[in-house]
Amino acid sequence: MRLQKYLAACGVASRRKCEEIIAARRVAINGTVVDTPGVQVSSGDQVWLDGRVVTPPLAFEYILYHKPYGEISTVRDDRKRPTVLDKFRHFDARLYPVGRLDYDSEGLLLLTNDGELTQRLLHPSNEVDKTYWARVSGVLDGTAVRRLSTGVPLGDRTSSPADVRVIRRTDAETILTITIREGRNRQVRRMMQAIGHDVLALRRVRFGPIALGTVKRGEWRRLTKDEVARLQAATQPVILHDQSGRGLSCKDTPY
Q: pLDDT, tens digit, for every residue of 145-156?
């Protein structure tokens, strides 16, 4: 197994972040410092990070947490603000958030020590759906919905098309759900600002096949085996077959 993949499987960080950690010469294999991500880790090798041995967990934990407003989705905060991990300090497993939710947003946040699944869920090529309930200022009319559905400028890039469903409109605000397949910083808020609306409240209600359901703010539950299996399936390529029977991933097809 490649070193960066091994570290991710140990729950250290995403595979890309692990490559940076290796390049910073913080990792050693059998006492020898390594700075090349592609180095192979074999059975029996001992891997050290910052002077401590790291090993894959004996068991994976998968947690659904309803993050309230006012918590940050990082392991620690220099400003001493509450983090999403404060409630999980007693866990034997060292958990990490799967992506982030803004400090001023709430809703579904997955936590796990399964670094490989985390990497797949967050990788842009897998386009895992994330659905948000939002309350925005002003009246979101049909033109605005069409703009969101085709993509809006976000700096030097255009957002991918979003699925938007308006739930209710008043003279002052609009309630809607929006599904995106990217994970850019404060993306929903920036998309709304790009079409002239401010987000007044934002809650993530679904991540891929997993729904927030009735979990209350600040509470959590473990995912079921079926839910974990569906998360795993959500990151696998769709395999089709041509007339010769040759397997094709969805990216190979011309459709």
A: 999 999 999 988
pLDDT tens for 94-137 read 888 998 899 999 999 999 988 888 888 988 888 899 999 999 99
SS3 at position 224: coil
> Domain 62-124+210-234, what fold?
Alpha-Beta Plaits (3.30.70)
Question: Cβ contacts of residue 24 below 8 Å, gap of 6+?
Answer: 35
Clarify whether 86 is annotated catalytic.
no
- How many C-beta atoms lie closer than 10 Å to residue 193's C-beta? 15
CATH superfamily placement of domain 130-203: Alpha-L RNA-binding motif (3.30.70.1560)
Q: Which of 45, 50, 102, 252 is catalytic?
A: 102
- Distance from C-alpha of 153 to C-alpha of 193, rounded to nearest angstrom: 10
| This prediction's pTM | 0.76
Give the torsion through C-alpha atoms of 207, 128, 12, 33, to 10 deg. Answer: -170
